[in-house]
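Trying the structure run again after the queue cleared.
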Amino acid sequence: MFDLIIRNANLSDGRKGFDIGVTAGRIAAIEKRIEAVAVEEIDASGRLVSPAFCDPHFHMDATLSLGLPRMNVSGTLLEGISLWGELRPTLTKEALIERAVRYCDLAVSQGLLYIRSHVDTSDPRLVTAEALLEVREIVKPYIDLQLVAFPQDGYYRAPEGVASLARALDMGVEIVGGIPHFERTMDEGRKSVEALCRIAADRGLAVDMHCDETDDPLSRHIETLAAETVRFGLQGRVAGSHLTSMHSMDNYYVSKLIPLMAEAEINVIPNPLINIMLQGRHDTYPKRRGMTRVRELMAAGLNVSFGHDCVMDPWYSMGSGDMLEVAHMALHVSQMGGIEEKKQLFDAVTVNSARTMGIEGYGLATGCKADLVVLQAADVQEALRLKPARLYVLKAGRVISRTAPRISELFLKGRPATIDGGLDFVPVAAG
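Done. Tokens:
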């Protein structure tokens, strides 16, 4: 007897036509045909089942604040930073919690059950940290929320930046953040990387830094971050987010940099939607698009995962909480349209992100958590193409969200009465 069996599922690792049995919130069996009964059954009917989506880079303290105090008319990074600077002193704990929890509702509907959020610590009131620590407990039954102490105005540049970050960590924020390229000088940026890595080593914490989010090829703080990671023995516990300057760096320099990053086991987190929207704003033509070197970093064995970064906030007026939208954009900008490359991109919003976040028990194997998504698509390639409905979202084997399939009715003489966009147009070779 199982608590739940999902029948006839195509799995995101490529297996097709398998049953998944769930007991006590964990995957108990994955077999071609489970000869048993369950309290509940879901017929996947040849649709894709994946582990829940993960977002390793988000700003939940700003989400859904679009229009406060006013719209970002230019759509630029600098105007967004300016708007956030105006909004931040007016933030209340209650409003922050309301917006963040409402975003988590959206995330669940999209099958997004793991989120790492940066928490702005530049305001010494730390109302952002107070609010998101409370949100972490509110959503704990259905979303695993990690928090990063993020000195958004600069660790040294903000008047009380050093003390505020330490206080946020003392309050229970569990990851050390930074933004070295936003310090006053390159040297202060370098010193901030060293100081923040030392704090992480002393406290036994992970590191996740906004690093080189600029078009400047001479912004090379990722080199310092990799070196300090090795120095402090933090291999595998450090993430470099954005790394957009790498798209403009000299190829010879990058040929040295990537092996250093691999030695340090740096986790790389590009944010495709935001990077291509905000970078290259000083260019005429040819115009840079801001994505780091995804294909080359993956080829070197680095763990690359994609973040959503923003949804409807001062920096980005778009966004839907859909990690497949993120991967879909990455596919186009990185020109990774090959069959195996598509699988890599799907991994970048699932298993790679789980690895970045250090999630235990994640995956599609016996003993893993039954945190699963049933999608209206036949395989990962089709999921990237369609960004399909999340028919079922399961947390610990319990359905927490359900969406009706997208079925179109046609009223055309001699043509089919309905179209299931997720299954009726699967390429012949994949069918």
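The domain at 2-46+363-430 is CATH 2.30.40.10 (Urease, subunit C; domain 1). Worth checking whether this holds up in the mutant runs.
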